[in-house]
User: Which sequence fits this backbone?
């Protein structure tokens, strides 16, 4: 299909609507990988859609900042939440919207999500800003910043 973003290559990211859909698809895929406990960073989804220099940082609960971690560290946190004590923990996307400049560069996604069946003390509604970067011809998640309780 013309203008398709099915392979995610930069040449196929033609219109702003296509870029927005591509970003939404990756974010939903990210949550699906978490919810199905696919934490191995060598899996195709992670290598294709997450930049090699990805970082995650967040503000949660008492507004104490998390130290920035790489993808493996971020997934290790999720694995720790789900392994034994809270096996039904999952994330649900509430809202996703993507903005960019006129040339389709400086792409940023903002989102709200819920954490369901989570440990006591984890803030259930949360918000994030996701920055994207083109790497090896693909638009990939580069940086995620979250704030628990920041959902609108």
Assistant:
């Amino acid at each position: 299909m013309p203008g398709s973003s099915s392979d995610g290559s930069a040449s196929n990211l033609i219109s702003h609507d296509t870029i927005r859909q591509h970003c939404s698809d990756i974010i939903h895929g990210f949550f699906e990988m978490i919810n199905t406990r696919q934490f191995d960073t060598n899996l195709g989804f992670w290598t294709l859609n997450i930049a090699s220099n990805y970082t995650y940082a967040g503000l949660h609960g008492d507004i104490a900042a998390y130290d920035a971690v790489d993808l493996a560290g971020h997934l290790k946190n999720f694995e720790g939440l789900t392994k034994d004590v809270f096996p039904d923990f999952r994330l649900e996307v509430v809202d996703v919207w993507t903005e960019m400049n006129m040339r389709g560069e400086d792409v940023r996604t903002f989102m709200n999500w819920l954490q369901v069946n989570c440990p006591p003390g984890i803030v259930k509604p949360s918000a994030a800003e996701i920055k994207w970067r083109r790497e090896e011809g693909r638009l990939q998640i580069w940086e995620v910043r979250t704030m628990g309780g920041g959902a609108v």
